[in-house]
Sequence to fold (378 residues):
Amino acid sequence: MRIGIDALPLSRQRTGIGNYVQGLVEALPRLAPQHEYFLYANKEVGLNLPEGCVHERIDRPFRRCPESLWLASRVASLARKDRVDVFWSTSPILPPGIPDGVRKICTVYDLVWLRFPETMTAKNLLVHRMFARKAVDNADQVVVISRSTGEDLVRLMDVSPGKIKLVYPGIDERYKPEDAEKAAEYISVKYGVPRRYMAAVATLEPRKNLRLLVDVLQILKSAGELTCALLIAGGSGWKNSNLHREVQAAGLTEHEIRFLGYVPDEDLRSFYSGAQVFLFPSLYEGFGIPPVEAMACGTPVVASDARPMPEVLGDAAILQSPTNANRFAEAIGKVLADKSLRSGLQRAGMRRAAGFRYEVGAEQLLQVFGAPTTVGAV
Fold:
């Protein structure tokens, strides 16, 4: 089969969606090299993929074309030229003009634009309102990354359950435990931060609910229990200036909370492994890859109980309400003080994380495509 893929998430700085698409795109030709894969993007994707069955189609129509406009206006003609049998949109945008007879798949990661529109930028909200519902209606199958997102599609968009296919993210093999002291030392030296720290990974945007962690740090500090700094890795989102003002208003110093900005992939394993505890207070997610990566590295996790965290993390993490700073602080204090609790969370977390593999997701995706894998590949 000839499989067209929207590769835009691979052409930008990697975050959760980019890592999800990369993991699947790398696994597909390993599992089924008999098919041809056409990657469509407006910039180089920067992956080392087999040349025989993978073809990059880099199209630069004009300078600074918005990605949503490029995808909607350019990709259908590229797919027609390549005579694809299947087109997989890795976002909830299906390019108009994909030929009849081509199987159309779109991926929906979450329904933030319907459930928490106030946490989105005006631009992203407009794009989703313009394209998402039409893409879901026109797709032959809709891929979701958690059961929770699938349930939201049924409840909020009246999508038939039979049209929805679950393909969980996987965790890259590089995420495994390092020596905790050496990892913490490496992060301390490279980023100029304390050796003993708590970790969080999130774009600085309202949905990630980092404001709660400011309250948590205040509570721990007031109780004399703030024994390590909080390091937050992640790119700037929107309204991030408010968060910085709140940190200042709370009287927290850079020895108590530090924003590291984007941390490259090659440092994330050390960042997770060196942390005393990983914190994830998000209000809503499609899946929530960072806490699973942290668990794979043997780091205890305290996360929100918002959907889909119970589905993803199970009993391998401590889950608390994303609106209750006191309960969050209490859970963190217990993890930091109780070695037995830490050890139990570390073992349970590594077992849980081991269940998420991109080879399994790619196998499921190939079934959605109607493209058989190599016999015995998995």
Observations:
- The chain has a mean pLDDT of 92.
- The longest strand covers residues 36-41.
- The chain has two domains: 2-170+357-369, 180-354.
